[in-house]
Amino acid sequence: MQSPHPQRAAPAPVPSAPSAPADPPRVPAGSIVCLALAAFGSGVSQRLNDALLPQLGAEFSVTLGQAAQVTSLFAIAYGLAQLFFGPLGDRYGKYRVVAWCSAACAISTLLCGLATDFTLLRLLRALSGITAAALIPLAMAWIGDVVRYEERQPVLARFLIGQILGVSAGVWMGGFAADHLSWRAPYLLLAALFAAIAFALFALNRRLPAQARATRRGSGSALGRIASDFGHVLAGRWARVVLVCVFLEGMLLYGPFAFLASHLHDAFGLSLSLAGTVVMLFGFGGFAFALGSQRLVAGLGEVGLAGWGGVVMAASLLLVGHAPAWEWAVPGCFGAGLGFYMLHNTLQVNATQMRPERRGAAVSAFASCFFLGQSAGVATAALLVERLGTAPVIAAGALGLLVLALAFARLRSHELRGAAAAS
Fold it and tell me: Cα-flanking dihedrals φ and ψ of residue 324, to 5°?
């Protein structure tokens, strides 16, 4: 499952060909670290409710599937809002928009912690999804603006340590709060974190060189510019392939993922805090990938990373869903995270290069498809869990991910061979 070297370039107009600023601007130390902290907050917000679902069900007298709406509504709002924040980042400055949205996240998360009934909580979770929508995709697009293509995949992997740890921390915080605190406590803590991140981002934005704060002005109405930007992105065949793949990835992984903690709790009698701690190892698998990303990229290439990532992820999820004892879920969750980030990071680096001249819109379209896939996955999984149970749903997601990863690896191999022949 080896591949051509991932950094092999082809000249325009081949859609997958790398292009980067000839002389990328020097940015202040800590600028990417602060973006990683924003990604951490986004990751916490995404997965905060996974281990809280049983407590939310009991608190508000709803079923487990109904309680999962706090996750699916967040993902739907998050995905749809991408369609607006990408062009806004291109027009007003990506770093500045991330800073403003971090401040908005602090407010919306605080309101979630103060919600008085389940209907209001669902609405506020949707608002949280909107405010968090800009953070990761615009940060990725900004990195694409200031980092050369041949250096970009390891840099993106290190940036995503923030999101990776955030996903883990979100599951763990939810589980700990379910057993020892009120479900409101993690929301209040996260709101304070977002406020501190926003302050740091605003301070760094003032220190960025002009090239790193560049904006792109356009004519016509705002909706017209948005339609034009996304039409430009979707015109590329490879862009459409990447967007469909990331939608399916989000659906097949995060539908079952939302019920992993509940599966360990129901199948093995683990406390929700311990179940959340085990699922937290998913993030440590991603962390291991981030630390070894440069060596893995050099050794496997994009095709190998995608294909083997699918194999590792599918085997690991099957282990979690059908383990004879809960201890088997420890390597299972770790391996699932490692495999996922092998595949997802490869998709991400392709997303930053789908349309460099509309990078904000392109990466936001990518994130939109990913989170709309998640929302579809959680909604579908919630229906199936109530009828079939958690283990079959986890198995179905694992097999689907395997097929998807191998199909993308094959398509990417053909794309790279075509680019090499054109050069």
Answer: -75, -20
